[in-house]
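A student in our group prepared the protein record below, which I am reviewing. Thanks in advance; the entry in question is below.
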Amino acid sequence: MNEVVLDASAILAIVFREPGAEKLTVEILKDAVISTVNLAEVQSTLIKKGFVPSEAWEDALSLVTAAEPYTIEHARIAGDLITETERYGLSLGDRSCLALAIALNAPVYTTDRMWKKLKLGIPIHVIR
């Protein structure tokens, strides 16, 4: 399997054992990457939920094989996506995740059902 991109919501589903997390199998996770933008999202959410920062960081990183730096190419793609995603209310974090998936030509996993409506040339898997 090639790389797969995880949205912050997918990582949080695993950490909090939410519905759909079981769809992110060991086979998928062994090739999982996350944007550093989304990694910061996960870290922030875990700290807000009471995690110690160092433990939150370890929990977030333990679920992926790599955290991909947010590049100028990702910024351009995320900016370009505004016209296709604005009507669905996608945030900059959402578009940053999608930008990484587009740049890698990789499937993306999320819990955000609105993403099902997107036609971006990459497989989008909504886990719940």
